[in-house]
Amino acid sequence: MQSRRKFLYNSALAVAALALPDWVAAEVARKRLTILHTNDTHSRMEPFPMDGGKYQGLGGVAARAAFIEEVRSSEQNVLLLDAGDIFQGTPYFNIYKGEPEMKAMQRMGYDACTMGNHDFDGGLENFAQQLTHVHFPVVICNYDFIGTVMEHKYQPYHIVHRGGLKIGITGVGIQLEGLVGESLSQGVKYADPITPVNQQAAYLKSKGCDLVICLSHLGYEYPKQPEKISDVRLAAASDNIDLIIGGHTHTFMDAPVVVNNIKGKEVVIHQAGWGGIKMGRIEYEFNFGFPKKVEKKHSNITLKKRVE
User: How many domains does the chain have?
Assistant: First the structure.
C-alpha cells in the first residue's frame, strides 16, 4: 500500500511538473533544508572569560541565539538539534540545576535533543523537572526508562515537517556504567544501540521520511578502543540512517565524515566540538525530479560575542 501511494504521488508530481513552465517545475521539485546543531554545550551560558585562554570570548547563548536568528531570516526551512550534555561545566548548573540552559534552548526554538551522560548529573528527577521548561522532545531509543520519572518524558523517534519535507529523528546514548553514578541513573536500562536505532530508522523510512537523523552521544571514534561503539562504528553497522549528529568526544570537525553503511550507502557524521564554541551547519538540497538527487554542503560557525 505504501509503495502504491508513493507511486501515485510521484506520478502526480511528474504530471504537474510537465504542466508547468520549466523554471517553475524546477522550483517545485527542489527543496532545501538547513540543519543547525550543537553538542556538549555544558552550561556555557556566557562566553568563555577574557583571561587569555584559548577560547576567550567564544560561545555563550547570546551569540548562539543571534546566529540562529540570522540563519532563520535568510533560510525558510531550518532544523535546530542538540546531541546531549546540555548540563554541567559552569556555576550556572551547580546553582540552578539546568533551568536556565533549558529555558534558553526553548527560547532559541530547538526541535529536539538527546541525552548525554552529564545530563544525569542532577539525577533523573532533576532532568525530568527541567524538561517542564521546554516543549521540544528528548529523543533516545536505547535507554529504557520504564518505572522511572522519565518514563513518559522521552520518545524513541520524532518526525518534523519542514517546507514539504518529512524528517525523522531518533537518538542514542552512551553506556552509563562507569560514567554515571548508579544513584543518578537508577532504573535506567541500557541497550547496545545498533539494533534499536536500525529498527527506528527503518520505521521512519517506512513512514516516508526524506531524511533520517540520529542524534548520538556515543562519541565520534575511539582508535585505542576499536571495540567500543562510536559514531563511526554505528554508521558502518546502520541501515536507513542518513546523518549522525554526534557528541561526547568534544570533536571539532572541520568537515563531516562519510562512512558507508551495511548496504554501501553514505552516512554523514558531524560534530561541533563543545562549550557552544561552534555551531554545526549542514545544508541539504532535495531534487525530487527524476532521478531523485540529494546534495549537501556544510560549514562550522565559530560563535563569538558581537561587538556593537
Answer: 1
